[in-house]
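Hey, resending since the last one bounced:
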Amino acid sequence: MALFPRTLFALTLGLSALLLSQWPTRIAEAADKLVVYSGRAERLIKPVLDEFQAKSGIQIDLLSSGTTELVNRLQAEGDHTPADVFLTNDAGSLEHARELKLLRPMNMREVERAIPSQYRASDNSWIGLSGRFWIVVYNTNMVKPDQIKSLLDLGQPQWKDKIAIPNSGSEYLQAGVSVIKTTFGDDRTKQFLQGLKSNAGSQVYQKSSQIVEAVAKGQVAVGIVNHYYIYRHLATQPTAPIAAIMTDQQEGGMGAIMNVTGIGVTRASKHVDSAKLLIEFLVAQAGQKLFADLDKEYPLHPDVKTDPALVDRHSFRAALVPLARLAELREATLTLIEQVGLR
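The structure tokens again:
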């Protein structure tokens, strides 16, 4: 992510200061409560929302559930939904909600200045907040990092009974397979998934934190997880024998698989001004720093630094499949996953 030019950066700082100076008036005009439907684990997003609540005085009522369940709920509730905001951890799900006309297009200069266009819907009906990469965690006592160049390597026979993977219901898995399928085609992707199924055996987990734990304990040699689970584990257990491999960086490789946490305002919201205040807070430098510091994610604002423990974002390439395409790719991906019989 390229940095802003110095003049634009100075202008952005000035506009941010102006916006913050106007907050007391705008808060007084806004609703005193927002209902947030969240597909993120509550422990990951609640501290950020609590910070907004403390600064704005706007109460956040948080309902946490699975992303698919929340999209279905929004669709069933229609114009009668109490939700003002939908926040989740998968761009494909956000794009699907946009296609269902559950989200409101937004015209917000603050967003367009802060978040590069590749991390937003074309009409700003959803806006990326933080980035994550689907990578390999390995046990440093069992594996040398040069043994794995690509995620597809883990489908090879030498990793039999040595890997842990997420289950087939994981949005992370579905998004990752969509990128692999688009890059390499159905046949190679199916071969990869069959290899994963065989190599993982019973080591299939509902939670990524369980995969990291299994690798740290030496129950398996490697696992596939979002990067931040590794660094959160190391933050509490710094001597754990685990490390990250940012895969697919070789010449001709597809690049690291990226997804985003994002947010959208529901089309039925009666509290759009308050929802805009929340979005402004989350995309501003202070809000973006919370994602970097608390959650070990990659901020999307170009001028907010990543946690220094993470792999430098400028040191690796991301896959080129547009995030907005993850929704259209999902149906075919799910069919392929079912054909292979991943559980």
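The longest helix spans residues 6-29.

Sorry for the duplicate.
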